[in-house]
């Protein structure tokens, strides 16, 4: 039997964690033969709720769960961590501006970055989910200088899944047949869901471009983009609660593909630290890009042709991320 790995989930008392923990414990993330030690972090007032979650996890009788640690101390939660899913964050309340949200969260992610730096494994794979996810990931990595920047990512997989599902519905195929949709930029309403390189793969392996299969460029350049950008708000309106099941599935898929690698001929999107050398995007922001993954190493897909339409959309989301970076770094100085 394999040695257990240490997996930290923050915001363990929250909605997303409630849907995410069973996926981890069933083996849907790290593999069905991979035991896990769960490290659950939340804030002090939520520890009672976390204990309730632990009671349920215990009652699920998951075979892969070796040990569960519940704590309100990041130094305990991140100790020797192999994977960290940073879900916990201060939620956006009514009337709160994005700047206020940044302010509240930058402080949280500064503390968590510093704790990761001190106690996590240097190979820890971090995905930041708590919003504003990209800039929170940036802050976390700033305060964890001993861990390579390549180990910090932000979740845009939910946006990618939403985009794939919408294309599939429009083209009358199964979502799993839609490959290589790209999410560029920020997990916000400026994100750019790009289908210019996306394909629909049929049962016999034949590939048709999404543009051709959908056959409606006006929709792809208009309502489709808007629908992906505002899907989170649409779910809140309908459910009176934010997306949690789909977000949890996306976190699980994000970490699964990081652990197990991308398939031949396929790529996936995630927020990664830019170095200024890819697609003309400035260095020093966490920008969602198409990547391939092999043996845990994330590589940005290079050489994709970028149309003028795409370029404009990428600039807008880059601009927003640069502004967020400035605001956040001022706060945590
Ligand atoms: P929730 O409010 O149900 O749970 C958040 C949990 O985080 C709470 O239990 C809270 O006590 C905890 N928390 C707050 N500060 C903390 C800290 N310093 N350390 C540890 N835990 C802390 O929220 P939900 O629905 O689970 O969402 C979590 C976050 O994920 C939100 O910021 C939300 O905006 C974001 N999100 C991101 C998505 C993405 O695609 N990147 C998609 C959906 C949600």
Automatic annotation (TrEMBL):
- Top-level class of the enzyme under EC nomenclature: oxidoreductase
Q: Can you tell me which residues bind NAD(+)?
A: 42, 105, 129-131
Q: Where is the Lactate/malate dehydrogenase C-terminal domain?
A: 156-330
InterPro entries per the UniProt record, alphabetical? L-lactate/malate_DH, Lactate/malate_DH_C, Lactate/malate_DH_N, Lactate_DH/Glyco_Ohase_4_C, Malate_DH_NAD-dep_euk, Malate_DH_type2, NAD(P)-bd_dom_sf
An example Pfam family from this entry, by short name, is: Ldh_1_N
| EC nos | 1.1.1.37
So which domain of life are we looking at? Eukaryota
Q: Which controlled-vocabulary keywords does the entry list? A: NAD, Oxidoreductase
Q: What are this entry's molecular-function GO terms? A: L-malate dehydrogenase (NAD+) activity
Segments forming domain Lactate/malate dehydrogenase N-terminal: 6-150
Q: Which residues form the active site?
A: 187
UniProt keyword Oxidoreductase present: yes
GO term, biological process aspect, one: malate metabolic process
PANTHER family per UniProt:
MALATE DEHYDROGENASE
Q: Which family does it belong to?
A: Belongs to the LDH/MDH superfamily. MDH type 2 family.
Q: What is this protein called?
A: malate dehydrogenase
Organism in which the protein naturally occurs: Salpingoeca rosetta (strain ATCC 50818 / BSB-021)
């Amino acid at each position: 039997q394999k040695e257990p790995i240490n997996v930290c989930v923050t915001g363990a008392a929250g909605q997303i964690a409630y849907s995410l923990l069973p996926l981890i414990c069933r083996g849907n993330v790290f593999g069905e033969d991979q035991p896990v030690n769960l490290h659950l972090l939340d804030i002090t007032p939520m520890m009672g709720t976390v204990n309730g979650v632990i009671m349920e996890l215990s009652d699920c009788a998951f075979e892969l769960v070796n040990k569960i640690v519940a704590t309100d101390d990041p130094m305990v939660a991140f100790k020797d961590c192999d994977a960290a899913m940073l879900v916990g964050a201060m939620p956006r309340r009514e009337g709160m501006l994005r700047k206020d949200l940044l302010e509240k969260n930058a402080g949280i992610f500064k503390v968590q970055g510093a704790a990761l730096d001190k106690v996590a494994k240097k190979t820890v794979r971090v995905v930041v989910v708590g919003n504003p996810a990209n800039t929170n990931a940036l802050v976390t990595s700033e305060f964890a200088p001993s861990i390579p920047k390549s180990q910090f990512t932000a979740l845009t997989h939910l946006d990618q899944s939403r985009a794939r599902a919408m294309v599939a519905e429009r083209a009358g195929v199964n979502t799993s047949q839609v490959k290589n949709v790209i999410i560029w930029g920020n997990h916000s309403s400026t994100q750019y869901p790009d289908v210019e390189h996306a394909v629909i793969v049929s049962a016999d392996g034949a590939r048709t471009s999404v543009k051709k299969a959908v056959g409606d460029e006006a929709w792809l350049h208009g309502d489709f983009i808007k629908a992906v950008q505002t899907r989170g708000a649409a779910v809140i309106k309908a459910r009176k609660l934010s997306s949690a099941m789909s977000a949890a599935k996306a976190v699980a898929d994000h970490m699964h593909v990081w652990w197990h690698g991308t398939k031949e001929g396929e790529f996936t999107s995630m927020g990664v630290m830019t170095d200024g050398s890819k697609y003309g995007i400035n260095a020093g922001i966490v920008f969602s890009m198409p990547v391939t993954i092999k043996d845990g190493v994330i590589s940005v897909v290079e050489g994709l042709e970028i149309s003028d339409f795409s370029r404009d959309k990428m600039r807008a989301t880059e601009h927003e991320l640069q502004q967020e970076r400035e605001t956040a770094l001022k706060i945590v100085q």
